[in-house]
Amino acid sequence: MLAVMLMEVYTVGWICALHAELTVAKAMLDEEHDRLPQDLADKNTCLPAGVIGTISAAAVANRMLLTFPSLRLRLMVGIGGGAPGERDIRLGDVVAGIPSGPHRAVLQYDFGKTIRNGELITTGSLNRPPDVLLTAVNILKSEHTLRGNSLSTSVKEMPTRFPLLRKDFSYPGFQQDTLYEAEYDHPGDDASCERCQSAREVRREPRPSPDPVVHYGLIASGNQVMKHGPTRNRIRRDHKVLCFEMEAASLMDEFPCLVIRGISDYSDSHKNKD
To answer: CATH says 7-176+201-265 is which class?
Structure first.
C-alpha cells in the first residue's frame, strides 16, 4: 500500500544516474510512497534521460534540496567499472567510497595535470562524506566481517517480487565474469566477447563463496567512461582506486554524500551489457 508523506519527513536522499539504477533501487525498497509534489525548480527524480556526468549530478542534487529541505543522509548509488589489482574485485561486487590516503573518498581523475611519464597530479580535493555516514559504514563493515552480507539474498529475492525484472536484472553467473589482460582490446564493435581470445584471459582462483564482496576505498570519477585497461591500471596503481564512475566528482562539493557502486564491468573495452 502506498503511503502519503510530507516532504519535511524525508531525511535520506538517494540519487540515481541511470534508468536501470532507479529501477533496481525501487525494487529494493521495503515500502513505496505516493509520488509527492515537487518544487517548481526541481524537475527530476533521477538524472534527466540522456544526460549524465558530473555537472548534471550536481544540478540534480541542488534541486533535490529545494523539494526535501530536511535531508541529512545522502547517497549516490549505481553501477561502476571495477579496477581489479591487489584487491580481488569481481563483477557483482560493491564498492563504498571512503577516504583513502590523501583523497576524500572520490578522486576526480580528469582534473589536474599529467606530467611527462603519464602520472596524474591532482590539483584539488573534494569534500569527504559526512561523518555520520562514515561511522555507519564502519559499523556495517564490522558486521559484514562477523556475519557476512545479505546482498546475495536481496538480489535473489528481487526477481521473485518483480518477475518482469528476471530477464534483465538477474545475476548471469560467474561463468560470464571474464577479466582480460589490460593491453588486450576488444575486437571490433562486437556486442559480446565470443570472439575474444581465451588465451588473453586473466586466470583467477575461484572464490570460496559466490556471494558478492563489499570493498571500501577510493572511487575515481570523471566526465568520460573509462574503457582502457592500461589507463585503468595506471590510475589504480598511482592512487589505489577501486572503481570508476561518471557522476560523483562535482556532487561531493555541492552535496556531500556516500557513493556506492555495484561493479558491472572492468573499465576496459570488454564492456558487457549483461
So the answer is: alpha beta
